[in-house]
Every structure is written in C-alpha cells, then in structure tokens.
Design brief:
This protein is an alpha+beta fold. The chain has four helices and seven strands. Helix 2 crosses helix 4. It comes from Vibrio palustris.
Length: about 140
C-alpha cells in the first residue's frame, strides 16, 4: 500500500535503549492523535477476543545527534508541520502538566530535544529529516 504521507519518529542517538523506547512511545501517541493518522479496524483472534486498532501506516524510526534534532524542529515549524516533541527534562517529570511546563520554559532554539515525531506529506517530511539515519 502506498501512502502520500510519511510518519517518522527521530530520536537522539546517544540515549540508552530504555529512554529511546520511552520517547518513541510518547511521541507516537502524540502523532496518532492528529487527523493525519488513520487507524484500521479492531483485531479479533480465533476466540473472538477483540484488540485495539492500530495505525495503518508504517512508522519510520530514525536517529540523529541532539543538535540535529533542533534543526529538524525548526524546519518543521517553518513548514508548518504539526510536530510532537520530547525534551530531556520530561524524563524527570511525573505527569503531562509538568511536561508542558518544562517545554514552556525554553525558547525553540534552546529546547533540549531528545526526540521529535511528525506525519505529513512525504516530500515535506523528507526535507525536514534530511540527514537522519534509520535506527538500528
């Protein structure tokens, strides 16, 4: 199946694996709340147990240095792409309101980003994340 859009998550390459997984989880939740993401139907197993719907579009997970994340978020903002962000401070907070407060503390160029995610037209996303590598 071909998609006109691209769903990417970019994480800082220097994070421990558990933090990368945490960032990917939070960011995917942010992007899947937008109108850009389409979900399929519920899954049903052979015993008629039902399971939640999933995003029908593949998610591409990329990695870059932290400094490149700042470049990417600025490109996304210029292109008016809805973007989910995760900053270093959010590892120390315990709830959503505290997360928003930590982000509000920084100007865009100073955000201590460890991950970003977006879903938009393929060409736009490719321009934003140019230089990122597939996560291994």
């Amino acid at each position: 199946m071909q998609f006109d859009s691209k769903f990417v998550i970019v994480v800082a390459d220097d994070l421990p694996v558990w933090k990368k997984l945490n960032v990917v989880s939070f960011l995917s939740g942010g992007v899947t709340s937008t109108s850009m993401i389409e979900t399929g139907k519920q899954y049903v197993d052979g015993n008629d147990n039902t399971y939640l719907t999933l995003c029908i579009q593949p998610t591409i997970v990329l990695k870059v240095t932290r400094s490149k994340l700042s470049t990417f978020v600025q490109r996304a903002n210029r292109a008016k792409i809805e973007t989910a962000i995760f900053i270093e401070d959010m590892f120390a907070t315990g709830h959503d309101e505290a997360n928003r407060s930590t982000v509000r503390y920084y100007e865009t160029e100073s955000l201590p980003l460890v991950g970003i995610a977006m879903c938009a037209e393929k060409k736009l996303v490719d321009k934003v994340v140019k230089g990122a590598k597939l996560h291994d």
